[in-house]
What does this fold into?
Amino acid sequence: MKQNHKPLSEKTVTFRRLIYCMCLILIVITLCSVSFMHTQQKRDRTEQISKKSLETIQTWVAERDDSIKKLQSYLYSQFSGNAELEALPTETNPVKRFEEKNQLLELLKMTVQLNGSAQSVFLCIPWEDEYLYLSRYLDDQSTVAESEQIRNDVLRLIKTEYSNQNSQQWTACTINNTPCLLWMMRLGENICGAWIDCDAYLQNCRNLNTMADNISIQLVKNENVVCEIQRESDFTGDPSVLLEVPSQQLKMTVVIRMYPDSFLSEEQIRFDYVWFVTTILIIILIVVLAFQAFMYYPIQRLTNEVAALQKTEDMLPIHEDYRTREIRNLSRYLNQNMKRLKEMKIDTYEAKLSEQYMAQEFLLMRHKTHFFINCMSVVHALAGQHDDELICKMALSLIEYLRKIDYEKQELVRLDDELSLIHSYISIQKVRFGDSFRFVEEVPIDLFEAGIPPLILQTFVENSVEHGRIHQKDNVIHLCITYAEIENAAYLRIDITDNGSGFSDSLLNEFQNVHRPKHLSQGHGVGICNAIARLRHIYGDRAFIRIENIQEGGAHIHMDLPIID
It folds into this structure.
């Protein structure tokens, strides 16, 4: 089965397309690299900030745990076995009772000021079926109403939820409508405790982060949210990073939710993508320009020079001044091969010329031999008749004829020289045959300088005299030469006609099949076969010859020979 292959031009690509593809690939790689680096940098920066925030919060929570632990130990050491605390419920002297109460308040005040972890420390002392509530706050900004509300909430929690509890654990509760962590310790009938404001605790923890407005923070106990502070900025749907820091002392977990897209934008990542992309594009441009300078333009120049060789027969050398070594070597190899081809072409051309020259020499030799045989036959016949006068006349005509064929070694001769030779030949034939034929010539004077192969016209005229003449008839040989243009080229149009016997069919067929000298006829028509072969050697396919018989009698030879300057 025959396969249909696409033309080679459809399967190949140009260097320019390769350059465009390379640029496109480099741009895509650049964009992907920028995106990857941006994502990687965000991830690294997020991990860095998250790690730093986690370490800061862990340190702070650990410090708070240590502070709370010290608070509990200090309260226990100060109020366990305290004489004023034990004597106050039973003291009846108002003055001493007042002094003991102030001493306890001073201890509470000192405790809250030294520790700073709790918003308030307090003492609850049984007093006339009620609790005497003594407390001191971390700050003194609470109003009387707020202080009264705090007192009532603490007493209520002690009576309801902490009446039988002595676990000394921090428990979530609500004091003054604020989520808090409450701790208390029983010292006999007395209760010592402290409470921590969850909002203040989380706010202090949140303020440790430089992106405080963009994080959410929660205090979680047993998977229940005790208190939380939401971020202020609105970045809904952003991915978040979750940090969890357990508090060993409070038995709770601080959960921080960070939003990278928000704090990274404020963090202002120090990476200038514009400069990076600009640098990559400059590198791409330099690579492309270098590729064009060292590869594309030299190859294009070499291709154009090689293509120019097809448009001219002169094999001009190709430039070798290329900066790329491979292309310079390629051009040098091409020049060397062209030099060899040129030498081979010259050798082939000279061999062909030598072959054509030998062929023409062979044809001319056969023609002269044929002509000389005919002339010697005439002299022999006159000698047999002892006609010395005609023999002398014949000899003089033959000598004149032989002098005129000195140009026979030339490829082309002037038309007037060929006509002069024909006139000498006719003179010889007049001696031989007398007035039994007439030669008529029609040739414009302006064609006399045109070139024509030697002995061509004489060959066809001789054939009409030797083989076409009919005895006892007025034989006429007519030679007409005119100018013609065929396919915008100048030609000599030659017509030779006679009213003789014409050619046989076998000869006409042989004339049409003459190609090379080895095919020449060995009998009648050898001169015409030689002439046809010579014309084809000289003109190739540009010459046209037609030989035919005339219906009224005689032969017609038509030739179109190109005029060569």
Observations:
- The longest strand covers residues 475-486.
- Residues 1-10, 516-523 have pLDDT under 50 and may be disordered.
